[in-house]
What does this fold into?
Amino acid sequence: MAEFGIAMDGRAPIASIAKQAQVAEDGGASTLWIACHLFLRDPITTAALALGATKRIKIALMAMSPYSVHPVYIAMAAASLVEAYPGRVILCLGSGAPADLKVAGIESPRPLVTIAETVAVCRSLFAGEMTDFHGKIFEVSGRRLANAPCDVPIVVAASRSNMLQLAGRETDGVLISAATSPPFVKACLDQAAAGAMGKPFRKYGIVYARLGATEKEGIDPIRRPIGFVLRGAHHADNIRLGGATLDQAALAAAYAAENWSEVDRLVSDDVVRRHAACGTPAQVRERLAQYRAIGLDEVIIGGMDDASSIAAALAAAQG
It folds into this structure.
């Protein structure tokens, strides 16, 4: 039986985080995934608030990018959180959204090597070793973490073949992005399994969900969050496998111009149906079941930014 998690994308006010975390825990969520999106709210601060407001739910930093935050600082943040809340912290690494990095003037070359080296640096630091790492991108030597050894599972957010295989081979799990269609999720998990070569690893996937009295009431509020994800060129295969028709270039331009009516037009009902779980409670439950059937260990429900929506989604998901 797949577990359920909740994803926070950084749009909700900081003052609301404690309540949302409590509602997620009370609703039976296993993990609260705190997104790291540039220009939104800081995930480390958000994670600390969520941990302090709850008793058992795990918190995942998702997905910390070594392009915007050095691997040593990433490890410091995760180790500090787990020092205060043992056994409740997961570190998720990822390259970051290319469009957001570009806007911030951050280059992101050689993502496969960069993420692989970040995993190695974090592993060494979490083990309490006197790190002596000399890579192609990073060099860390002669120091160890003050609060290590510590137990921090590492997950990689991935959508392309080589990165998926890296996740299966080198880490504790793989995270598949939000707004992904079931056929694309299945293809991603197969690639990660090929890299793992029989090694066990956890399989996580984010599914945007929104409930309404009708399907339209569920679909309309989720168009912009889905468009935010699908505007990225790296989601071309996701859209192709899902079977929807979407002009990604036009969507990216509409987002950049904050032309919300155009975003809403481009992210059609068909796009939403193929890339999310929206509508009545019965429709949401049926759609989430399709993602569970693919083989995810944890279905992470995203696209919500208030406590009542989180509670409703978890209730619908669990029948």
Summary: The chain has a mean pLDDT of 96. The chain has one domain: 3-211+280-317. The domain at 3-211+280-317 is CATH 3.20.20.30 (TIM Barrel).
